[in-house]
Amino acid sequence: MFMFKDILHNVQKHPSLVHCMTNYVTVNDVANIVLASGGSPIMADDKGEVEEITSICTSLVINIGTLNARTVEAMVLAGKKANELGHPVILDPVGAGASSMRTETVKRLLREVRFSVIRGNISEIKTVFEGSGATLGVDASEADAVTAENLWKAADMAKCLSAQTGAVIVITGAIDIVADEHKVFVLRNGNPMMAKITGTGCMLDGVVAGFVGSNQDRVLEAAAAAVCAMGYCGEKARTKCEGTSSLRMHLIDAMSSLTAEELERGAKVESRI
Fold first, then answer.
1. What is the pLDDT of residue 149?
2. 98-141 pLDDT per residue, tens
3. Which residues in the chain land under pLDDT 50?
4. How many domains does the chain have?
5. CATH code of the domain covering residue 197
6. What is each CA distance from 3 to 10, 124, 164, in whole angstroms?
7. Which of 31, 121, 158, 199: disulfide with 140, CB 3.0–4.6 Å?
8. What is residue 147's three-state secondary structure?
9. What range does the domain containing 267 cover?
10. Which helix (H) or strand (E) holds 185?
């Protein structure tokens, strides 16, 4: 019904080479989950090579988790080159609203780079939408959390932000939202322990980039399928793990063995126009 099976088939048949400009805390896990999900990662963040590296890739991830002035310039260069080549670019505005440097960097990136997908928690996405905000470091503020009561208000914000930026908006949390200006997917896969290990969001950036890179004509559906796959694999991992460290291991294992048919069966998804 939602074409997730077709999306994953394309990922497996036409793997993406993903240029990951991600943060130093999670770089190993990001590389491994990209490989497990069917893509191939390459990590490069020096401005002397990022344009060249992006040129040989299928998609680009810009994640500002461990932000510094040197990498900001490299992110802009890589983003502009990807735009020039027509490659999808994924932005993760990690901690936007936590510091003025992060917030201003996101504003600059949005001015200078055209993004295919913007993915963050609800507080980060609110900051992008409103131009300022408050987060608990890199975590969502409890007051912002998406619940059954405010779900469609958050979905409307995502649609408005998509209309402003031209990007598919992905809001991740206990309930996930994936939207463009016309349509919203609501996904309810995953488990609470995923929030207890660092890097699940950064890992998802890489999965989204791989899925979108292999399905560039269906960015909205590819992003939703990636979010669903990550959540479903988190559910499988929770049944096997003993704690947070083994959850990470089993999450990558589950992603590496995920089939298109399994994803279709396990998806907890609804859509609304």
1. 80
2. 899 999 999 999 999 999 999 999 999 999 998 765 555 555 55
3. 1
4. 1
5. 3.40.1190.20
6. 11, 29, 26
7. 121
8. coil
9. 4-272
10. strand 184-187
